[in-house]
# Entry
Amino acid sequence: MEGLIVEPSRTYQKLLSSAIESGGLKTKQVSSGSEALELLSTNAFDLVFVAMHLQDMDAPKFSSHIRGNSQTQQVPIIMVTSNDDKKLLDEAFSAGITEIFAKHELDKITSFTAQFSRKKYNGGTAGHILFIEDGSSAANPTLAALREHGYTVDHCITGEQGIEAFQKNSYDLVLTDVLLKGKLNGYNIVKAIRQYDGNQQKPVPLLVFSALDDVTHKVELLRLGAADYVTKPLIEVELLTRIRTLILNKQLREKSVTQQHLLQELALKDPLTGLYNRYFLLEAAASKMREATRHSIPCSLILIHPDKFNEINKNHGHAKSDAILKKIASLLTQSMRREDIIARYDGEEFAMLLSHCNVYNAAIIAEKFRKLIKTLRPDDVDITASFGVAEIMPDSSGSFSELLDAARDAIALAQTNGGNQVISQQ
# Structure
């Protein structure tokens, strides 16, 4: 089963994809309605998730196209939006939208997808298992059962082989006997794996089994980091259920961590260009200003403003204007240093905060970008930009607002003089 995501923000595409895949569907992502309609004409999707506003159409118009096609008119369409205007939502339902979720309701989206796909974990959750067991009479039936239920299994007969395999491969679960041939027993394996995956920040569940039905052994192994303990002889149904639960919990934890990282990225990044947003710049700039003042480190700000952008927006439309901003953003990031901060500061205005860079060198960098933007011609539109450059002064208070005001004065002068030039505040 597969879902189609139609969402202009690449960051939110990832976030939504993670939530949907947690519910059991594979996903494919596109950014515009026209791309989605073209895909739907040649591919079958079980669900379509669409943003309220796209670059080339809105969700109701997109839905009307789907409902008007006999091949796609039955496909459920789920709109994801941050708009709670009842009139707009009613319009969406009237156009054929099946369900509506708020953008922050990722848990509900996962639950809805899981219910729709009816994916139950009764046959084995896909996963890669490291199985350490030296007795063939015990190992063979377990191997057969695991592989029959869809697991990929690497079988090792000693603890030494198991640890070596663990360090070379990525596993969803380790299944090991306590009593093994060789120098390493189950206790050594649990300790070694917990030490290794603790350093690697990739906790893998350990299921230990043994003929030793002793509370002391169980408690000690659990204390060392085993997730579960099963007594031999192994009962297939019980073992599979425990394995399925441990792997599923691991996968859900990983999905949760991924979503947290993406939410953090979403809060710090501009969804259109992928650059940092003004909030991140203001927060990061404060510490850089204090550092520059305290240690007499040169620090410069470059403001970039596309010339006559309102006319471009009016003559060519928002979609082309957005494409131009994305192309400029991509150009600015091509030669950035790790310590530089590049942000979309306000609308069509970009900012580059350059640490360890004086105003002279910043002006050279700005001039290089000015020439590159002039030859860029994104989407066959002639575009130039004005640049304002300023450096924090040693006797200043070290505030970003001072630096910003100086760069804005410079960029205003550049625009007054006709644009397509670099003005530095010395």
User: Anything to note?
Assistant: Residues 119-124 have pLDDT under 50 and may be disordered. The CA atoms of residues 204 and 244 lie 13 Å apart.
